[in-house]
Specification:
about 120 residues, alpha+beta, two-stranded antiparallel ribbon, about 55% helix, about 15% strand, elongated
Length: about 120
Amino acid sequence: MDLELEMMKERFAKLLLGEDISGSGKGVSTAVTISNAITNLYASMFGQHQKLEPLHPEMKMMWKREMNCLLSVCDYIVEFIPMSHSLQNGKAMEVMSSRPRSDIYINLPALKKFDALLLTMLLEK
């Protein structure tokens, strides 16, 4: 279990750093890294099949676990926006606040819904 946890931590770090674990800034964007990881996951699970067919329960569990890991990184992709904050003495101060990046905020729920729909279709016999 400890080995699996360490592997998950390393994957999470690579996703956040755009596959540049050294931190030198030469990696690709996080969104591209996540997209590539989902594509690789799909290829590893379905690449040998000539047609879509029902998934075995263990493959479904693996798919869900991997997708949850990949999409959990999206919680940390944020943008900063200015907000007004009132101090106790009544003065207003502008501070930067974080929120989910707008493209992720809009598209991620649709991606999760589509993933659930695909899994439902693949489990039907």
